[in-house]
Write a structure and sequence with these properties.
2 domains, 214 residues, five-stranded antiparallel sheet
Length: 214
């Protein structure tokens, strides 16, 4: 197997090549700073957004969903909860892009053996930060969709049926229906078949307000 032998260049690098090399080195050194500055701006905006949404959900969430049926309330909870979770994950990724996650110092020899040069090392770290920032932004986009969907479902969901029926247990019989009147010592109910019945108050042993008549 032939052994590779590097050849000496036939001529020295031109001024244009040297200028491009210096420009690349300057860009490599600046790339990580630019990415982390962008990540910091995203972190500040996302932190304010998450604080605002979380405050609104904690303060108004229970009041706005208290009158919803169970299935609709579960849907709103899943959408808003999923949106908040995605927002937290997105914020964490943006924080990682802004602060960096390298905790072990490397020697110059290790950096050169792995990356070839300091400029390439800066570019690799910047590319890693860009990947985390893009992942964080995608999570923020999903969080916005989920939160807006949760708000929309909350707006259009039907209200839970109110307790408008009365279950009466008396000494003579049991009855359930919509309350029509209670006067002259009698309680009048409209049953499911729209039949009006009257039960003397003196015979009532138990009266319960229910959602529906069984």
């Amino acid at each position: 197997m032939p052994v590779y032998r590097p050849r000496k260049p036939t001529s020295a690098p031109s001024e244009g090549s040297l200028a491009q090399r210096d420009a690349f080195a300057a860009t490599a050194r600046q790339s990580l700073l630019d990415v982390r500055a962008s990540a910091e701006a995203w972190r500040n905006g996302l932190s304010a957004f998450l604080a605002l949404v979380t405050t609104g959900v904690i303060i108004k969430g229970r009041d706005t969903t208290a009158g919803l049926p169970t299935s609709w309330r579960l849907a709103v909870t899943l959408l808003i909860g999923g949106g908040l979770l995605c927002a937290v994950i997105g914020l964490w990724r943006v924080l990682a892009a802004q602060a960096g996650t390298r905790y072990r110092l490397s020697t110059l020899q290790e950096l050169r053996s792995r990356y070839g040069s300091i400029e390439t090392y800066h570019v690799a770290i910047a590319a890693e930060a860009i990947g985390k920032l893009n992942t964080g932004r995608r999570f923020v986009f999903v969080a916005l969709l989920l939160l807006l969907s949760g708000v929309g479902v909350n707006w259009w969901a039907p209200t839970a049926p109110t307790a408008t029926y009365v279950q009466i247990t008396s000494t003579t019989n049991n009855a359930c229906g919509a309350l029509r009147s209670a006067d002259d010592g009698q309680i009048r109910l409209a049953t499911t078949g729209n039949q009006l019945i009257a039960i003397p108050l003196a015979q009532v042993t138990r009266l319960t307000v229910v959602n529906t008549c069984q």
